[in-house]
Structures are given as structure tokens and as C-alpha cells.
Amino acid sequence: KAGVTQTPRYLIKTRGQQVTLSCSPISGHRSVSWYQQTPGQGLQFLFEYFSETQRNKGNFPGRFSGRQFSNSRSEMNVSTLELGDSALYLCASSFQFLSQADTQYFGPGTRLTVL
Amino acid sequence: GDSVTQMEGPVTLSEEAFLTINCTYTATGYPSLFWYVQYPGEGLQLLLKATKADDKGSNKGFEATYRKETTSFHLEKGSVQVSDSAVYFCALSKGANNLFFGTGTRLTVIP
Q1: Over the stretch A82-91, which tens digit does the pLDDT of each residue have?
Q2: pLDDT of A100 above 70
Q3: Chain A interface includes B44 (CB < 8 A)
Q4: How close does chain B come to A80, measured CA to CA in Å?
């Protein structure tokens, strides 16, 4: 079974631009979560989507948004990029929602650099 | 709020040494606990998990026991290898697929 895939793997943008990252979950998984990883803040939860609906959101500004399609693929968008948005963005998928015992499977991440 | 406190790194060990990485948590209720590992340039991989008190998770020679009385989930391995060099993250979940991560501990194993 193929793992979680994320595209692109690397991205360079300039301040003020916007960016869209894509995530394809493991086949059969319906929940997709996004995390931001930075050296200073570590791993922080952005949001989770299940059945095309955002079910849970972390403490990030409204510039960060996402969506999920009917095939469970997800995209996240960051508008008006700031230097501090430079990070590794990780996508994780799991079979179901609201199960604390369920394992999340992570993709390799998209490395975003904002200049 | 819910949080995870992890042993500060980096940790450097010789091959075949014993490894312990401490992890304690703060949470109401009964969270599930996880250890994830991140190899250079890669995403996170689940190493092991435990879903209730006194459960022991194990994988690839690594073990951790869910201790509710001490709110701990320490990671141990009896004999580390060079290939174990990575960053290790302790995490907890209370559902809604929202993981709270520790800051990570970088392990370097030297031959």
C-alpha cells in the first residue's frame, strides 16, 4: 500500500506570495491532518479534515487554510507569506476521526522557504 | 492544557550502549501515547504506541511503558546501532487526530 505523498517536496517563495501544498493520504484513509515543523516551535498542529470538513483547528492565523476533496486528498494554502512561515509542512493521514488510539501516518513533508 | 515534556538533547552514545529518552506528559483523562522517529530529510515514522495505562509498546528493540502514576512514557533500547541515529519525538493524543508533540531528542550513535 502506498504511503502518504506530498507535493512538492521543496518550494521557495518570496514574502507576500501565496502557496498551495498538496497531500494524498494512504488509500482508504479519510482523515488528513497538517502540521508545521520549525526549529523554534517544534511540531505544531494546523488543522484536520475528515469527509471534506475541517473538524479541528490549531492556533494559527487565518492566512493558513485548507480543504479536502471527495477522494480524501487535501491541500493547504498559505496566503501573504511571511519569513516566519519557512518550515517543514507535514501531512498525516489516518483511517478515522476522533479516535485517540488511531495511528497517524506521516508523509515526507514539503520544505517551504520564504525569502 | 495538554503537553509533553521531553528530555533535552542531543544525546550521543557509542554503539551497543543502553538508551533512555525521558518523556513525561500533562493531560486530563486518558490519552494515548506515541513515540515517533524522524530520520534526516524524512517525515515522521511511528515507532511504537500505548493506548492505556501499563501498556508496553515495542518495536525494533525499542520499548516504552505507559505509566499513569508517574505520567511518563520513557523510551528505552538495550543496544543502540548507528542506524538508530535520528530525532525521537514523544507525543500524546486525546482524539480528533490532534497530536501534542515534545520538542524532540536528537540521538547520534557513534561506531
Answers
A1: 999 999 999 9
A2: no
A3: yes
A4: 26
